[in-house]
Amino acid sequence: MSENGTTPRKPLVALLSGAGISTDSGIPDYRGPDGLWRRDPAAEKLATYDFYMADPEIRRRSWQMRANSPTLRAQPNAAHHAVVELERSGTPVRVITQNVDGLHQLAGLPARKVLELHGTARAVTCTRCKVPSSMEDALARVAAGEEDPPCLECGGILKSATVMFGERLDPVVLGEAMAIAKACEVFIAVGTSLQVQPAASLAGIAAEHGARLVVVNAEPTPYDDAADEVVRERIGRALPALLKRLATGETWSQAQGA
To answer: Residue 195 pLDDT > 60, yes or no?
Structure first.
């Protein structure tokens, strides 16, 4: 409570999450030292729209990759739960995520407070008629012997409801993310290399509009020099501690005094 007896207003906190926040849930990242794209550069073809649409073999391999992926079996970890605890403390929170795993929502964060920049791996969509359907149902068809299951509505090619390489981000979702970056007072980039545009530019937009920028990532990022704070500790330990400080007003007090 402030000197005049009123409760201090809590800042709007925006959190940009990347693959690093989900590694403790057993989901490997893509561009880290042991990331998928570094270990197997050819795997990028499985997530590239033009290759996927043109080559049935790529699609068959993609469906097998989805079936074997730990993403849909993963559970939220301490970092995801810490974000939910911050939101439940009364702090306005918006999550902008580059992840497609849905773990922020599974941890209990309201879906309306999560912007999925790259879509979701928990659904599929038809590339022809655009009808969405369940990834679980599609994978059941794969397990039953359909190597490249077509759309049940029109026979078109099904794909994960994620943004593949070569596809544009949803302009509405991106616009909402930019608006949040401009409006927030604290912007935390966690578990992201901040190398993939336009998502990475959100950190710069937030800083330019006066937000306190915090980068939590194991590896250096292009925005470290613009950050007010850089944290190199393990995310599962560092983020809960950081968000606890935010919930109690410590970090916000630092930002006001900066």
So the answer is: yes
How many domains does the structure of the chain reveal? Answer: 2
CATH number for the domain including 5?
3.40.50.1220
What is the rounded distance in angstroms from the CA atom of residue 84 to the CA atom of residue 37? 30
CB atoms within 10 A of CB 101: 25
What's the pLDDT score for residue 31? 55
CA angle 47, 24, 77 (to 5 degrees): 110
Q: 47 and 63: one domain?
A: yes
**How many angstroms separate the most distant Cα atoms in the chain?**
69
pLDDT band at 107 (very low <50, low <70, confident <90, very high): very high
Select from 108, 132, 162 the last residue of a domain.
162
For residue 166, give every residue at least 6 positions away whose Cβ sits within 8 Å of its Cβ, in sequence order, or none.
Answer: 48, 49, 50
Catalytic residues: 118
- Name the strand (E) or helix (H) holding 15: strand 13-17
Distance in angstroms (rounded) separating the CA atoms of residues 190 and 16: 6
What is the chain's mean pLDDT, rounded? Answer: 90
Which amino acid belongs to residue 35? G
- Could you say which DSSP state residue 48 is in? B
Q: Based on the domain organization, do 140 and 90 belong to the same domain? A: no
- Which pTM does this prediction carry? 0.88
Range of the domain at 248: 1-27+76-118+169-258
